[in-house]
Specification:
Elements (H helix, E strand, L loop, with lengths): L15 H14 L11 H8 L9 H27 L4 E5 L6 H4 L7 E6 L1 H11 L8 E6 L6 H7 L8 E5 L8 H13 L6 E5 L11 H9 L11 H6 L3 E4 L6 H7 L3 H6 L7 E6 L22
Parallel strand pairs: 1-2, 1-4, 2-3, 4-5
Antiparallel strand pairs: 5-7, 6-7
Helix pairs in contact: 1-2, 1-3, 3-10
Length: about 300
């Protein structure tokens, strides 16, 4: 692919984190043995123009690179499995410069809703131009997750009666705790039994010393991390989702993350940074149930 325009297209400063994430995916795609190949990422980065280097020191950048690589592949596989299992809608909350509607080999036609801020979606659509996914129907929904985003999603054609695969990747940590809570409860309220969720949780960001420079830089840039969880499984269960974390037995997870385990244990990380889960029948959001013990298929067992 080549950019639709020869000159870089301006991107709002508030969305620079999306460009940094795309840069990490572009860097990963160039490795000899990548976790994920995203041929769109470099195109978005080139169109955005200079946004400066990823914040933080070398250790933080290495940790974030490996983390983004693992989460991208994990959520790619989760979404493909969910659609094969019967979910006919995919909703990407805080979609950023995600190109899954285009790049994933969907097993069957699926509606992919990309929810994000208007300026970011305008930029993204200018780069995408007239290109359409081979299998998915891509629908962009301009909305702020701090507001009544479900109304905008429904107005765009989302059907709350159909099984849905939700994804919150690189999103919830930027919301205040009550806002993150409302997003997750809103997903549950708009999901029939059998719907699925994939989510990234901030579990030790405030306790990892190597990320202090990154935290400070993001705060100065107007994008502070505001939300984290000690026990993600219990938190999600209380909001209507039965969840499990990825197993370290997954080869790509072990290869890329094992070296960080001592650092995470020292920070008191209980796990659950990445989760996938299912909306259970007759389980209203807010009612507590026991989280899975790690036997869910998506956990790699």
């Amino acid at each position: 692919m080549s950019p639709v325009d020869s000159e870089p297209q301006p991107l709002p400063a508030v969305s620079r984190t999306a460009v940094w994430t795309a840069q990490l995916r572009a860097d990963e795609s160039r490795l000899a043995r990548p976790c994920v190949i995203d041929s769109w990422a470099a195109e978005f980065v080139a169109a955005a123009g200079p946004v400066g280097p990823l914040p933080g020191g070398p250790e933080a950048r290495a940790f974030l690179h490996d983390g983004v690589a693992v989460r991208s592949r994990y959520f790619d596989e989760y979404l493909l499995d969910a659609v094969r299992g019967g979910c006919s809608q995919v909703v990407l909350l805080g979609a950023g410069l995600d190109a899954r509607a285009f790049r994933l080999p969907w097993a069957r036609p699926v509606d992919v809703f990309e929810v994000d801020l208007p300026d970011l979606l305008d930029f993204k659509n200018r780069v995408v131009g007239g290109r359409v996914p081979a299998t998915a129907r891509r629908v962009t929904v301009a909305a702020d997750l701090r507001d009544a985003w479900a109304d905008a999603l429904t107005a765009a054609g989302f059907d709350p009666g159909r099984r849905t695969a939700w994804l919150c990747e690189g999103t919830l940590a930027y919301l205040e705790p009550d806002q993150a809570d409302m997003v997750v409860r809103t997903m549950a309220a708009n999901s029939p039994p059998g719907s699925e969720v994939g989510a990234e949780n901030a579990t030790s960001l405030d306790r990892l010393g190597c990320l202090s420079s990154c935290r400070d830089a993001l705060s100065a840039d107007g994008a502070p991390w505001q939300w984290s969880l000690r026990d993600p499984g219990a938190w999600w269960a209380e909001r209507g989702w039965h969840t499990a974390a990825p197993s370290m037995s997954l080869p790509y997870v072990a290869e890329r993350l094992t070296r960080y385990l001592p650092m995470l244990r020292e920070a008191g990380d209980m796990g659950g940074w990445l989760l996938t889960g299912t909306r259970r029948e007759n389980h209203p959001a807010g009612e507590t149930e026991e989280p899975l013990s790690g036997t869910k298929r998506r956990a790699g067992c």
